[in-house]
DNA sequence: AACGTAACCAACCGCCACTCT
DNA sequence: GAGAGTGGCGGTTGGTTACGT
């Protein structure tokens, strides 16, 4: 018989011998786990499972606690603010779900991963492209994320006033405010493209195609966050004063996507319009702007 | 109402890194 | 240094629910 640091006795047994349970957790199991952790704390999951009398693996207990039972777990729909942050952080870190989750208080890596796989990959499918492709990433950055930011701003002001005043989002964390302000600015920039005088850069415009865009300045417009540094954005929106020009110079032309039949009207318009941020308005808007500017 | 499909999400699996003996 | 134990992470699966026909 073994005696561990938690003061409980148990024999070393294989999973078969212990007749471990699998599948959905029962209310009784949840109660046992919660009560045990409340008394003894978390960690040492294998011994915790044995000592609590749960016929579960330590891994299973840990997962259940972290993803469901923890008191600070947030439940319910992913908010637009959180969506924007997920998209931004994923573009930076890729499938580092745990790292991304650290910037979304109360959200678990599993939840974010599920969100990504169900919602985001669905959009990629609609575009007939891979979720990791440059085309999809650019579409996300220049269509979806600015629109999300605009949507958040509109909801915050409640009057369609979409100023970048961060004071209009008192409930957002700093992590959420920074990309919000950045992409709102991008959104404004995209809608202002045809207002700018591009003549001084006509050569650049003529040469601008999806094929060559990646070799020019495409990466300059991405949010000013180094892959090697922690997540930071400019402290205020005035730091983005030059964004419209950077935007025009580096943006991969949506025309390239639309003209190749990669976007189907069906699918983009299907479903809940409030959830479907990829709507024809965006497509026509971008088409119009680039027809005017080229 | 019945059936099929899509979407969602909890849970599991396998791998890797770290720690301890 | 080797091996076992453990925790953490990302990928995948399967059950349930929602929705469309």
- Return the average pLDDT rounded to an integer: 61
Give me the count of strands: 2
Secondary structure class reads mainly alpha
Low-confidence segments: 1-7, 9-17, 160-166, 192-281, 283-291
| Helix residue percentage | 40-55%
Distance between the termini: 79 Å
Count of domains:
2
Q: What proportion strand? A: under 5%
Give, in spatial order, the strands making up the sheet with the most strands.
1-2
Element pattern in H and E: EEHHHHHHHHHHHHHHH
Largest sheet: 2 strands, antiparallel
**Tertiary shape:** elongated
Q: What's the total helix number?
A: 15
Using the CA coordinates, give the radius of gyration.
24 Å
Offer a concise description of the structure.
The protein has a two-stranded antiparallel ribbon with strand order 1-2. Helix content is 53%, strand content 1%.
